[in-house]
Structure formats: structure tokens, C-alpha cells
Amino acid sequence: QLQLVESGGGLVQPGGSLRLSCAASGASLDVYAIGWFRQAPGKGRQGISCISSSGGSTNYADSVKGRFTISRDNAKNTVYLQMNSLKPEDTAVYYCVAGAGSSCSRGYLDVWGQGTLVTVSS
Using an 8 Å Cβ cutoff, are 6 and 56 in contact? Predict the structure, then answer.
């Protein structure tokens, strides 16, 4: 049974960088698209990026495009989110979620990690 665990969050100054990891267990990630979502204080959960099962296709929300990069290493059963040029408005709990298929266009399963908190503040 697929389980996901996020890690890598923390406190960073504006303009700084963090790399988040989404590690899978219970199943091979190579058949799932994986999305990253975030939930800022007082706001709903927002999709920010997705990567297809092979890594051949990616997408990004406009709010993070050009600053964040999603990638995956299926041999390590892990998906990453490299976050650069961080802004205070990036402060949120970040979650990864399994796609319903190999493509990001198929939507998502109700399989989430526990979330990792990213705080961007000076």
C-alpha cells in the first residue's frame, strides 16, 4: 500500500532555497504521477507542481514557475521539489500526493504525505 513521507522543510530567509523530498514506500513510484501541494495559514490547499511517472512531463502553478523545479528519481522511490528564490508568501505546509495514473492530467488519489512546514521569514 503506497505511503508518502515529505521531508526537508524548515526556516529560511527570503531569497533562500530548500529542497523538499517525497519518499514512497509500499509501492513503486514509477507508475504514479506525483504532485506537490501547499497550504498556507488560513488558506486552502493549492496545487503547485506535478511530474509524470517517467519524469517526462512537468507542470507548475504560475506562483512558483521559474523558481521551483520538480524532479524524481524512481530508482530511489523519491520525488523532489527544489525551491529557489523563496518568498514569504511561500510559507506553507507542503504535501506530496500520488496521481491517479501516470499522467498529471488524471488527477490524484487520496494518498498524501504528512506534510512538511516551510517558513520563509527574515
Answer: no
Task: Tell me how long the chain is.
Answer: 122
Contact (Cβ atoms closer than 8 angstroms) between residue 110 and residue 99: no
CA atoms within 13 A on the CB side of 94: 29
Strand partners, 54: none
pLDDT tens sequence across 49-100:
999 999 999 999 999 999 999 999 999 999 999 999 999 999 999 999 999 9
Q: C-alpha cell of 49?
A: 507542481
Contact 96, 6 (CB under 8 A): yes
Distance CA 74, CA 80 (A): 11
Q: Would you give the DSSP letter of residue 97?
A: E
Strand-pair partners of 12: 120
Per the structure block, which three cell numbers stand in for 50?
A: 506535478
Question: Is residue 41 within 8 Å of residue 9, measured between CB atoms?
Answer: no
What is the rounded distance in angstroms from the CA atom of residue 48 to the CA atom of residue 73? 19
